[in-house]
Amino acid sequence: MNQIAKKEENKAIAISAETSAVLSMIERVALDPNSDVDKLEKMLDMQERVLNKQAESAFFSTLNRCQSSMSRVAADCNNNQTRSKYASYAALDRALRPLYTSEGLSLSFDTEPCEAEGILRVVCFVSNGNHTKRYSVDMPSDGKGAKGGDVMTKTHATGAAMSYGMRYLLKMIFNVAIGEDDADGNTQSNEPDCADWLSKIEESEDLDSLKSNYAEAYEANKSHKFNLIKINAVKDAKKKVLSK
User: CA 34, CA 111: separation in Å to the nearest integer?
Assistant: First the structure.
């Protein structure tokens, strides 16, 4: 077990002990016929705060594990106006989705009204089922170009703002770096797609089949380090589920 895992385990144990102590105290008060109702309500409020704290801590622990499994994503698109390269949403999603879903995280995008005219607020809700965190970014949606002229219809501008916002939020949430291909070509974009192997591992019905499916996936991808990071993350998450 590495140092990060040890720290997360110790933190989880400490929070669990705190929660148990609060619940035990509330139970004693609730069973006492002479208990003060106001006092009990305050203790229930305390319980809610403790449970929320526990859920928040578990959420950020999950986010930490996701980020420790993620690596730089290679740029796959060109921006002719700025003469620069960037990673498309599809490239980011292909690299990140298997890692965060294997840890039980889900992402949901939406838009919200924004006070400023010509600005679209793109929102992402990230949840692990018990705790949800909201992220947002404001994107221009007026359809104006660099010189102030109209270059898009309103519909096109809104769609572009949503697309840009989703891509930027995905990078921000997981703190993903975007870069050119390494000199030795050892980047995620040059590795074969491992989606089928990930699906096979996720579909394992028991620990024996998980062991077999993982062994096959490892053997097929042992020379592709980024694929192995994803495969190991999905395998570890599935093992937790099957071990319950």
Answer: 51
CA-CA distance, 185 to 100, in Å (whole number)?
A: 25
Q: In this structure, are 65 and 79 located in the same domain?
A: no
pLDDT tens per residue, range 173-220: 999 988 654 333 344 555 677 888 888 998 999 999 999 999 999 999
Task: Check if the beta carbon of residue 98 is closer than 8 Å to that of residue 195.
Answer: yes
Range of the domain at 125: 73-179
Q: Could you give the residue ranges of the DSSP H alpha helices within the chain?
A: 3-31, 37-69, 89-102, 154-174, 195-202, 207-221, 225-242
Q: How far apart are CA 147 and CA 194, in angstroms?
A: 44
Does the pTM surpass 0.90? The reply is: no
The residues near 1 (Cβ < 8 Å, ≥ 6 apart) are 9
Count other Cβ atoms within 10 Å, centred on residue 167.
Answer: 20
Return the CATH number at 24. Answer: 1.20.120
Give yes or no for a contact between 205 and 238, defined as CB atoms under 8 angstroms apart.
Answer: no
The C-alpha atoms of residue 63 and residue 105 are separated, in whole angstroms, by 8
User: Do 86 and 152 sit in the same domain of this protein?
Assistant: yes
User: How many domains does one find in the chain?
Assistant: 3
**18: confidence class by pLDDT, cuts 50, 70, 90:** low
Q: How far apart are CA 197 and CA 219, in angstroms?
A: 11
CB contact set of 125 (below 8 Å; sequence gap of 6+): 107, 108, 109, 110, 132, 133, 134, 135
